[in-house]
Design goal:
By secondary structure, the protein is α+β, with helices and mostly antiparallel strands. It has 18 helices and 20 strands. The strands form 4 sheets. Strands 9, 10, 13, 14, 15, 16, 17, 18 and 19 form a 9-stranded mixed beta sheet that branches. A hairpin with a 4-residue loop joins β14 and β15. α3 packs antiparallel against α4, α3 packs antiparallel against α8 and α4 packs parallel to α9. The chain is elongated.
Amino acid sequence: MKWKKEENTLGATTQQRRSSETFFAFVFDALQDRTIIILCIAAVVSIILGTTVPGKDGKTHENGWIEGTAILMAVVLVAGVTSGNDFQKDRKFNKLSQAVENRTVKVTRDGRQQTISSFEVVVGDVIQLETGDYIPADMTYIKGHDILVDESTMTGEPEAVHKNESNPFFLANCMVMEGTASALVIAVGSQSQWGKIKAELEDDDEPDETPLEKKLEKLADLIGKLGLAAGILTFVALVLQWTITNFIINDQPWDWSELTVVVDFFIIAVTIVVVAVPEGLPLAVTISLAFSMFQMMKDQNLVRHLVACETMGGATAICSDKTGTLTQNMMTTVKLYVSGRSFEDVPRNPSEISRTVPQNVTDILLENMAVNSTAYLVQRPDGNTDFIGAKTECAMLVLTEKLGKNYSEMRDSANILKMYPFSSEKKKMMTIIQLENSRRYHLKGASEVILRSCDRILGSDGQVEELNNAMRTTLDNLIISWANEGLRTLSLAYRDLDEDEEFEERAPSDEGLILVGVVGIEDPLRDEVPDSVRECQKAGITVRMLT
């Protein structure tokens, strides 16, 4: 088939994995430890000397192989535990990764649509994207309608990005938040941008040694040098003492049978070198790391390699992403300015807004939030909420629900005449709805853009008031202060259109808008983050945010 040929020439969608599939490769890696190598050499020397060199009685010892064999058994145990664990966890990790990455994709091949696995996508396929789809490969835009893509996995930015002819590239492993599109696959697997980043992260052909490995290597070198020096000094001292006593003081003649004494001295020196090597040290380290691995698994952390436990335990700095790691990746309206009053803690006190803001102002505010939006909320069985669409719009929909209104019912009951999607050029979104006796023009967008077009505001009594210079200055300072706190600010406004005002060809004029309110939105921290950071700081670990 044609697509099979494309897979062979341009690469498969599945990511190439560096890890070996054979158990013996992991055994070989485990035997590369310098302490293990020294133990193996010491064991071989001990077996050879114990079984071939005769004792003082002129006979070889029947049990001379026991010490060397015991050392080899310790080496086999250490290598077996380490390689067995790494092999098992590596296989589980690969299976888990493949299961997560395998998704259903709608593709057009040979002029007809079909559904395939994301692993079967090849360059040249035309993919049909819809809201909620994950993008299986790098692609370029062909055609579509109001498509928004969440690229936070690649850029760390939570705001969805519009895709069109001027911004045509889709990146693999991102999610379609809104709209539909057809796109041509241009890179798959390790050739995609996501694949290249993943390959760099997994490229550990020459991995850095962990702190414990460095210390053990220094210890092994030191023990080896001290043991060798002690053995040489002992051998030299014994030979000198024997020579001076027998040939100088006692004046005995040399006889070749005396050579066995020299061999005995050599065996003593070798024994000192062998005994100096701590054969139990690698096993003790392996057991402690295995215990750490099981403890981490109880915390739902899959440990792929044993040394990772030691690396984490020796960490002095943690560099963390912000979006979705430190934060919930769930934008929330935390501050609100409406009817001349600022509400500082909206999530905890939504009822205060209902009590103090005039009802007609609340109705217009919630109508703007619900109708002038294409996002929606999905309740999961576990009680959590998924945000589908622009995260800032979802934050305002949550506020609508907290203020006692069902945004979906408001949207369904509204007679929407025209909707102008958000664009980065205009920095705003507009919707026109039909009321009983008029047509209302709702706007929301960047605070400075909307505020510039407003000359009136809904006051504390619910009546329309002039937006004077003093009040405009107050709003400008408020928006700046919220922005300095890390909040994303949006202004909401409206005006009722004249009967003869056209809007089919282009959007109505923004002049003479009535400001409804300003919202401050943030991506809140995860509940466990402050305590976790505090614990890290107590342990002497510096936490840095990279975003």
